[in-house]
Design a protein that fits this description.
mainly alpha, single chain, 209 residues
Length: 209
């Protein structure tokens, strides 16, 4: 059991590592506001990772059918969400009133936006499933031991975002504000491009049906 818990902890870390819209958003928040707001944003990603781990264990067959049936809508709406978040990053200057020695401000909005970005990519369920298979964690949904496995996945994901945001929060003090503004804009543009690509793929699937 302990071995499976340790494997699940590694699954949580591995599920968080790939660079995507959520990671870029956490990067932007960590550089603009500091470690703690960045970690709060990362917890949005942890919530989604935990949800997808539960889905992968309890309802994979249903999830597969739902994604297959509604994949066009998922791509279009998910892409729109990602693009809008990217646009808000590009056109909003979070550094305008920021001073390097200011205490960082907390905002539940960052957490919610990270949730939205994570939910816009339900294909991550299959990433989670692949990681469970790769690490050889096989537990039946009705097994009482599933609870510590899910908690370990969540802990692994949270640990990754804690270290990620902490490193960036410290790194931000080595940059000038003008440099941070450009990093912010580039990050926003990348997120927008990902969102537009998702929408384009959704429309292509729609017209090919």
């Amino acid at each position: 059991m302990l071995v499976n818990v340790l494997k699940a902890f590694l699954i949580g870390i591995c599920a968080s590592v790939p660079l995507g819209p959520v990671a870029i958003y956490v990067l932007q928040v960590s550089l603009s506001k500091g470690h703690k707001p960045g970690f709060l944003t990362g917890l949005g990603a942890t919530t989604i990772d935990t949800l997808y781990a539960v889905v992968a264990v309890f309802a994979l067959a249903f999830a597969e059918r739902f994604i297959e049936t509604h994949k066009v809508l998922i791509f279009i709406l998910g892409g729109l969400i990602v693009a809008l978040v990217g646009a808000s990053i590009v056109f909003k200057d979070p550094f305008r009133k920021l001073k390097q020695d200011d205490n960082p401000s907390y905002s539940i909005k960052d957490y919610v936006q990270a949730l939205a970005l994570g939910l816009s990519n339900p294909a991550a369920i299959f990433v989670m499933l692949t990681l469970f298979a790769f690490f050889g964690v096989r537990i039946e949904a009705q097994d009482f031991r599933i609870a510590p496995i899910i908690l370990a996945v969540s802990a692994g994901s949270a640990s990754y975002w804690f270290l990620f945001s902490r490193c960036l929060g410290k790194l931000r003090r080595s940059f000038r504000l003008s440099t941070l503004v450009w990093i912010n804009r580039v990050a926003g543009i990348v997120v927008m491009i990902v969102g537009i690509a998702l929408m384009a793929e959704g429309f292509m699937k729609h017209f090919m049906l």
